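To fix ideas, we reproduce below one chain and its tokenised fold.
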Amino acid sequence: MELRCILRGWGFWGGVLVLLGSCLAAHGTGGAADLLRSEPVRYLLPVASALPCAAAWREQTVTGFWRPAVSRCGRCSYCFGLLLACWISGAGAVLLSLLICSALVPLTAQAASVLRMGLLAGLDALVGLFGGLVFRSRIAAWFTPFLVCFFLSMVKERYLPRADALDLMRWPAPCVLLAALLAAAALLILMQRRLRA
């Protein structure tokens, strides 16, 4: 139910359009051979993945929707469902926009690279959910993933140029998946504590 509402909402399609526009803008400049590593895609991927569902926690706590949902399914199931919906919607928006972009512009990416982008989008969506949970703001939920990616890229470029681990776009898929699972576990604990308070 939750995922169906998210997929029909403006945030999901807004995320698709943001990343699709950045792919087409990167292709229009003729800069990068691989659009997935271009600057517009690198910096707009976190925003596109956070738009569909990252602010859901904030909206549900403000409207009081979480109370009947928690009474029906329990705290753990409610939090896990919200995390899963956030992950799927963030990755789905990015993968759908990459699919549309590949139909319009030939991409030079391999399937593993696209899978890694989907996993990274899910991780960015969870980072956005964390931003919304901590700062209690919809805007913070949308832009926290961008700020984290921008901060890591600036530290890498200016201070640690040989530290490839700071470039999230170069992480292998298992590392992204492990980081996402750890982030989901931490968010699950934090969300359950917030519901008790």
